[in-house]
Amino acid sequence: MNDREGLADRFLKACARRKIFAATAESCTGGMIVALLTDIPGSSAVVDRGFVTYSNAAKIEMLGVARDTLDGHGAVSAETAREMAAGALANSNAGIALAVTGIAGPDGGTAEKPVGLVWFGMALSGKPVVTEKRIFDNRGRDFIRRETVQHALRMGLKALD
């Protein structure tokens, strides 16, 4: 079992202990978080659903992210990550939702928003949504996406423990 698989297993067990379902809202990872979770036998007991909202239209339609948020702050922002997490919680049976939006590269980065920038949102029922920003080393798209998955799971574990 690698680090990511171990994190996923611990996250699922933490959800089971709390008797809550989990949901994800993923942009730059394209469903990698929910795929990792559902690779684990028995995950259906705690995984409710995953939203892959790669486009702005999907963020609006599936999660209720406000067009004004996207126009004013961009898809890769604390505000968008917050609304993605809140929307995943509101549009599921989950008690916890993990959201990620970022620039995995190799293109798309700017001086203000470089390749490797990822915003995370974590919504836990009854609590305010938490956001975090990370800028991962630009060691390739796969590296950034894998690090994003791990960080999202760590955020979830921290909230559940």
Pick out its properties.
single chain; about 160 residues; CinA family protein
Q: What's the helix-strand series?
A: HEHEHHHEEEH
Q: Tell me the CATH superfamily.
A: CinA-like
Q: In the CATH classification, which architecture applies? A: Alpha-Beta Complex
Total domains: 1
Report the β-strand fraction as a percent range. Answer: 15-25%
CATH uppermost class: Alpha Beta
Morphology call? globular
Task: State the low-pLDDT regions, or none.
Answer: none
Strand runs, count: 5
Helix content: 40-55%
Largest sheet geometry: 5 strands, mixed
The structural class is: alpha/beta
Q: Count the helices. How many? A: 6
Q: Biggest sheet: strands side by side, in what order? A: 2-1-3-4-5
- Would you tell me which CATH topology applies? Maf protein
- The N- and C-terminal alpha carbons lie at a distance of 22 Å
Using only CA atoms, what is the Rg?
A: 14 Å
Mean pLDDT: 97
Topology diagram in text:
Blueprint lengths: L2 H16 L3 E5 L5 H7 L8 E6 L3 H8 L3 H7 L4 H13 L5 E7 L14 E8 L5 E6 L5 H20 L1
Parallel strand pairs: 1-2, 1-3
Antiparallel strand pairs: 3-4, 4-5
Pfam families: CinA
Protein name: CinA family protein
